[in-house]
Write a structure and sequence with these properties.
With about 375 residues, the protein is an alpha+beta fold. It has 12 helices and 10 strands.
Length: about 375
């Protein structure tokens, strides 16, 4: 069943002003999300905000697994069925849809159900834009926003409703985004009011057209390359604007710092402009590990709800459901992984070629086979 929403709720024109933010927050407190969602969407297309969001999302886009609730044949069958459903979906997209509730307080996900071989499968998932929903302040439940004051309950037996008990992460982000935009607007306004510095050439009274043309060419060349010559008897002056200011830089820096701290847990995305770091050092757009784990726990909670929805449509009287989990271990860089492989091999462990394949090292068909070490022969030091 396609969710019926009010298509007349369109996109609101955003103003990068404190007044618009205050209006958006006031409406947000009364359950109206139109203004704040418009601010969210505008901020998301900013390169720095997008970099921070994607850096945070990268943390949970790892391997996942399902484990049967018990060793019974039915629980094994249930686990295999749910796993087959999930394998047919883009799980990273689904993780992003769920995580969007952490960013914007809630996320409404609509599965497409199809009957295949007598079972109800989810063949696609789609996130519905948050602007189509309101919070009913009478019972504090999310509902579909209709016309005027009309609201309709969300059919939660068919729709996955994800909500965060914490305030939306993008609320402080859009506030800092407005500050950052103020910085850019401040600089633009400064240029508008006081103008750019410019180069002015002067020539003596009665100078001929040849001298004027030569002087103009000298001014143009100086403006383009900061180097040039001028005819004798003329002068070239650099006229500065009436006022200097660096306030716009402060606005931009404060805004970017706030965005980085909120989404990544550190300021490296602003302060570490020299390039990415690997190993133990924090890369600029890499989220703090504690935030990654919190995101994983958040996503697992709603994946469990989603799998319950799938199981309950296909099996009766199920009391225990498969356990969904996302890999939590900290990724290690190539140098450290190779060191671990070498150490394991030196201690006599068998190392699968798949471990090298994960690093992009593939054995060609015409390559000599891997050499092996004979640990019973002390003279054999080969690999």
């Amino acid at each position: 069943m396609a969710l019926k929403i009010n298509q007349q709720i369109g996109i609101i024109q955003v103003s990068y002003t404190p007044e618009f933010f205050k209006r958006a927050m006031n409406n947000y407190k009364f359950g109206y999300f139109w203004d704040i969602i418009a601010l969210y969407e505008q901020a998301e297309i900013d390169s720095h905000v997008m970099g921070c969001i994607e850096g945070r999302q990268d943390g949970y886009k790892t391997s996942w697994r399902l484990t049967e609730a018990t060793s019974s044949p039915q629980d094994k069958e249930i686990k295999d069925f749910v796993e087959a459903v999930f394998m047919g979906l883009d799980m990273f997209d689904l993780f992003d849809f769920i995580h969007d509730a952490r960013l914007k307080e809630f996320s409404i996900i609509e599965p497409t159900w199809e009957v295949i071989n007598g079972k109800q499968w989810v063949t696609k998932v789609e996130k519905i834009n948050q602007r189509y929903f309101r919070r009913d302040m009478a019972d504090h439940k999310l509902k579909i926003n209709g016309f005027g004051s009309e609201m309709t309950a969300i059919p939660e037996e068919e729709i996955l409703v994800c909500e965060s008990v914490k305030p939306a992460l993008l609320i402080p982000v859009v506030r800092d985004f407005i500050l950052k935009e103020f910085g850019i607007e401040c600089f633009a306004s400064f240029i508008e009011n006081f103008g750019e510095g410019f180069i002015l050439g002067t020539y003596p009274p009665g100078a001929g057209q040849e001298v004027k043309d030569e002087l103009e060419a000298a001014v143009n060349k100086l403006g383009a390359s900061s180097r040039g010559i001028k005819p004798e008897g003329t002068s070239i002056d650099i006229i500065e604007s009436k006022k200097g200011t660096t306030d716009h830089d402060k606005f931009i820096e404060i805004g970017k710092n706030g965005i980085s701290v909120t989404l990544l847990g550190h300021e490296n995305a602003v302060t570490n402009r020299g390039g990415m770091q690997i190993g133990e050092s924090q890369a600029p757009y890499k989220a703090q590990r504690a935030k990654v784990i919190a995101d994983i726990v958040f996503i697992e909670k709603f994946m469990y709800q989603f799998e319950k929805m799938i199981v309950n449509r296909n099996y009766l009287n199920v009391k225990k459901y498969p356990i969904f989990s996302i890999e939590r271990s900290e990724p290690i860089d190539t140098t450290l992984r190779l060191a671990v492989i070498d150490s394991a091999y030196a201690k006599g462990f068998k190392v699968s070629a798949d471990e090298f394949g994960k690093l992009g090292l593939i054995v060609a068909e015409d390559q000599e086979p891997f050499l092996t070490r004979d640990f019973n022969n002390p003279a054999d030091t080969g690999i």
